[in-house]
Amino acid sequence: MEQSVTPKTAFLRGSRDALPFLLVVGPFALLFGVVGAEAGLNLAEVMGFSVLVIAGASQFAALQVMSENAPTIIVILTALAVNLRMAMYSASLTPYLGKAPIWKRALAAYFMVDQAYTLSQIKFEMEPDLSVSARLAYYLGTVVPIAPFWYILTYVGAVAGTKIPPEFALDFALPITFIAMIAPALRTIAHSAAAVTSVIVALLMAWMPYGTGLLVAAVVAMAVGAQIELWMARRPGTGAQG
Description:
This protein is an all-alpha fold.
């Protein structure tokens, strides 16, 4: 049944499934362009952030600590802490895409964004019989509407952002994007515990300079989630799924 799904069909499905995310990716990209320009970055630097990093949350985090004149090492560590979830995303998708050629996996790694991961993980779990080529096609299909839109609207924000009326409140895009992606993912006790822990620790560590409390919150949350996963796996008659 699902073995008959061709890569072309899977690619088109991925592109279609990703379209709703454009409603928040657009304002998010515009906002970064505006904030980057206002922080003193030139157009090439703003676009370099979005094209080379292509990770909105870490871009905002790095830009925030840069604006506070934080040391370079703090900027790098902050961006890495925010992007640690990408390593977990990669590990989660390895059973589905690990047999693809290395250059295709490298391409998938570059385009590893929250929306692509979320859609693909759900798709692969729901349709386990998809071939590796169909899975990769679906994954790349989810990126086709998102990545160019991200680049283009970052450029628009950097060039014309100061002309966007403040009543449009572009900053709504960041929290809404993550609420939409995180809420459905809180399917296990470990996921929920890690999320709650990260919020609590981040608030408690808000006094730390240069936003380094976020680094502490990320480490503690991952440790809590991992420990609960191990505990659940060891319980007789239970697995990691709550």
